[in-house]
Amino acid sequence: MASDTMTVAALSRPFTLGMFYDAVKDELIPDLTLWDAKTLKDNTVENSQHSSDFQISISDTTESKSSLLNIEASLKASFLAGLVEVKGSANSKVLLGEARPHVVTGILYGANAFFVFDSEKVEADSVQKMEGSMRALIKKIPAFDVEGKVDLKLTDEEKALTQKFSCKFYGDFILESNPSTFEEAVNAYVGLPKLLGEEGENSVPLTVWLVPLKYVDPEVPELINEISIGLVIEIEDVLDDLRRMEARCNDSLVEGVVGDFPCLQEVLTRFQKLCSYYRADLQKTMVKILPSIREGKEDESSLRRIIEEREKSPFSHEKLSKWLDCKEREVNVVWACVEIIPDIKFVANQTELEREVLAPLAVFSFCFIFTFLETADPCLDNMRNYLDGEKSGSSEPTYISDDFLTQMTDKAYTFKKVENDLKGPKVKFFVAAILNKKFPGASVYEYIGEFIIKLTEPNMRRETAAVCPEKTCFTQSKKLVWTLRFWLGGTLDGFFLVVLRS
């Protein structure tokens, strides 16, 4: 009998002694108990086990979270698939005759509290150092509790470190206010024991012991199969990989330069959503298959097949990672150019650009155009088609070469030189992203008033770029005429005659 006993994490679910639990679907069976209230009361034994545990994890994987919550392999499979609803699972209605029920025979009460510290974005080569420093500081938290009072003594270096990360609280306690800083987290931690109540009346189920109902009624159907640990690990790896892809995408989305370019923002957001949809679709399929495997109606090959199919799909690790590599490269190229021309105004699209050049004070307008950024993306279309059950094509994202990056920064330096030499109250400069395959990489749109004079590709190197100092001025018919000529790369790239009324 001991080998049939199950131990599962409660995960904030409302377990009580004597209630039924469907081990196939990992859900409670409400409104039914094996014994009446008097029998339960007369046969319940309570033991106090006062203890506390403090653990630190620097990983954000499902494995680390499962370890902190004491989730074993079988329940983890259900958790990954979405079968376990941490809150509100008691709303499910399951007929006892269709379930493989177990009876709750023991409950360990207590409370969990999780303080999640999240650092600001750091460079890749600084991550390990930051992790080590954060771990050392967080490890000190119990030492700040002196007889129930906070004694927070930090060095100047530690104080500076606490300014670089924020805190979020998750747990079974109801706090007066959720902590957002390290100091607030320490104060909350010190006050946790009091929140349990003098008699532990505010504690909740943490761990539950279950016994198969067959020991009471031999005719009750048994749980036939459990999911192998190896397969659970494979499922976990797939879902964690998809979450990492979404997190990488989000890192690009929060880059300041991305917010200035709607086309970049759109494709990154679209990618993130498609990954989320695919992950939800995987979990939906797992919800259907897991109970069938446990009941012996299907074997594990049906679930393993889903994992194998992913590597042949547009959502394979290789394809998603390659797409992100290319898009991150695009963001870096744009960022590098914008850093060269940091004080120039961004315009979101062609319409906004036209509005700017039509402004009364704008006589001359120059706009540095990123011509390679576009919202159409065959890879994203393939992902969408795959989710819709349609045939998806084969396409590869384009990775920007080092030569392309050099050309782009050279063009930005040239544009900056033109801005320095021609800037004035009547000359306006802008930056925008407008697709133009005629000029790959970047182009400069030159305007006089609302009229576009020239679309050029400033492809010269910055050391040969110069603005001709010659400016001639003469009066003719009460009109002030300026002739501006600028030389780019040693050749006359542009010449225009502008008439201003005096």
Description of the molecule:
- The chain has 502 residues and is of the alpha+beta class.
- It folds into 2 domains: 2-221, no CATH class; 237-501, Glutaredoxin (3-Layer(aba) Sandwich).
- It has 14 helices and 18 strands.
- The chain has helices at 37-43, 62-68, 73-81, 127-138, 156-162, 182-190, 192-195, 229-253, 262-294, 301-310, 317-340, 350-357, 378-387, 402-422, and strands spanning 6-9, 19-22, 27-33, 101-110, 113-119, 145-146, 149-150, 165-171, 204-212, 345-346, 364-370, 427-433, 442-448, 451-456, 465-466, 471-476, 479-488, 491-501.
- The strands form 5 sheets. A 5-stranded antiparallel beta sheet has the order 1-9-4-2-3, with no helix packed on it.
- A hairpin with a 2-residue loop joins strand 13 and strand 14 (451-456).
- It is globular and about 95 Å long.
- The chain starts with 5 loop residues before the first strand and ends with a strand.
- Residues 343-450 form the SNTX thioredoxin-like domain.
- Residues 237-332 form the Stonustoxin-like helical domain.
- Pfam families: Stonustoxin_helical (PF21109), Thioredoxin_11 (PF18078).
Short description:
The chain is built from 14 helices and 18 strands. It has 502 residues and is an alpha+beta fold. It has two domains: 2-221, no CATH class; 237-501, Glutaredoxin (3-Layer(aba) Sandwich).
